[in-house]
Specification:
Elements lengths: L5 E5 L7 H11 L5 E5 L11 E3 L5 H25 L3 E5 L6 H10 L3 E6 L10 H13 L3 E3 L2 H9 L7 E3 L20 E5 L8 H8 L6 E5 L12 E4 L5 H9 L3 E4 L8 H9 L2 E5 L2 H6 L6 E3 L3 H13 L1 H33 L2
Parallel strand pairs: 1-2, 1-4, 2-3, 4-5, 5-6, 6-7, 8-9, 8-11, 9-10, 11-12, 12-13
Helix pairs in contact: 2-3, 3-4, 6-10
Length: 347
């Protein structure tokens, strides 16, 4: 490990994976990294070292990519003069990560990224997939959240020796969920609302079941849901609001219809709230089988899983006990993997 190296963290994204970046910054704090953001993201963080121009839409992206590249080039040259052993880390996807990687290669600066989803969801454009592939090719190491996603990338022909897995970090500064068993439970869905998140599937599976309330909290376009006792918060949720929501619901529901490396699952583990989750490789890899209620991504299977969760008091408490044990094991394993990443960045 070369302690003379200086870590630069670029966080340019306005929406996706912000929570992941915030948690990762807490772990990098002891290395006193340089944080670079854009005007659009600067207020998310308590301390920012440098601010670069960003973009808000497709037209902005076209017109501002050039100015961003030139300003980023000047900044990296200046930093390279101050710290001859730089390393750049991009913890979440952004189209301009590719430009940063190209500059890093030209200036002989070590460059690393985290890939959250190698197999992007259907709604994401081919251009985004192309940029992600080109950025992966520039990265060493390239970090994935699960073995499943890493193996998908390896099958695409990338050099797997530069790959490593570091799961989503646990969320700090959160209280555990202590809600007792309730035969008429309060159900919670949180996160960005997208078609693959499975709200229509959840709605159909709940049609004939009795529950107290379903809360849907998150930004995005809501599908039509015909259920009683709906509490809809259709906007971005603050950390304080999120903590309050999780503390006041018995179940966190992840009814996803496609694989996802979900920060919501890690949030549920951090809060020790019982979770009902559809079976997908990326999700199943993040949590032991006995720590959640698992369902096939179908109406019939999810209906039966929900019914079982609502009616079995002993299993409710056993799952919560398992979650507490899993959280301790997860934390120990994660810290070991994070130290491996630090070793690679500072070698």
């Amino acid at each position: 490990m070369d302690k003379a190296r200086k870590i630069i963290i670029f966080s340019l994204t306005r929406t996706g994976c912000i929570e992941y970046t915030i948690e990762m910054l807490k772990h990098f704090k002891e290395f006193n990294p340089i944080l670079i953001t854009t005007e659009e993201t600067k207020n998310i963080f308590s301390k920012v070292d440098y601010i670069l121009p960003g973009f808000k839409n497709s037209f902005d992206f076209i017109t501002k990519s050039g100015p961003f590249y030139r300003k980023c080039k000047r900044l990296l040259k200046d930093l390279n003069a101050q710290f001859p052993k730089l390393v750049i880390y991009c913890p979440s996807f952004h189209p301009w990560n590719y430009l940063i990687g190209k500059l890093a290669k030209r200036l002989k600066i070590k460059f690393a990224i985290t890939v959250h989803d190698y197999k992007l969801h259907q709604s994401e454009r081919k251009f985004v997939r192309l940029l992600q592939n080109k950025t992966i090719a520039l990265s060493n190491p390239c970090v994935f959240l699960t073995d499943h996603q890493m193996n998908l990338a390896a099958k695409a022909g990338f050099n797997k020796t530069i790959f490593m897995v570091l799961p989503h970090p646990l969320f700090t500064e959160v209280n555990s969920n202590n809600k007792p068993y309730n035969p008429l439970p309060n159900l919670l869905f949180v996160g960005y609302i997208k078609p693959y998140k499975g709200l229509e599937l959840l709605s159909s599976a709940l049609e004939e079941l009795s529950f107290n309330k379903l809360t849907i909290a998150g930004d995005g376009e809501l599908p039509k849901i015909n259920l009683p006792n709906l509490n809809i918060i259709n906007r971005k949720i603050s950390d304080d609001e999120l903590n309050t929501l999780i503390e006041n619901h018995e179940f966190l529901i992840l009814p996803y219809t496609q694989a996802s490396q979900s920060g919501v699952l890690c949030l549920g583990l951090s809060k020790e709230i019982n979770m009902i989750i559809t079976e997908h490789p990326g999700l199943q890899e993040q949590l032991a089988p006995d720590c959640a209620y698992w369902s096939k991504p179908s109406k019939e299977s999810l209906n039966q899983t929900l019914k079982s969760a609502f009616t079995n008091e002993l299993l409710y408490y056993q799952k919560k006990k398992n979650l507490a044990q899993e959280k301790r094991a997860y934390s120990k394993s994660w810290n070991h993997s994070f130290n491996t990443l630090i070793g690679k960045l500072l070698e």
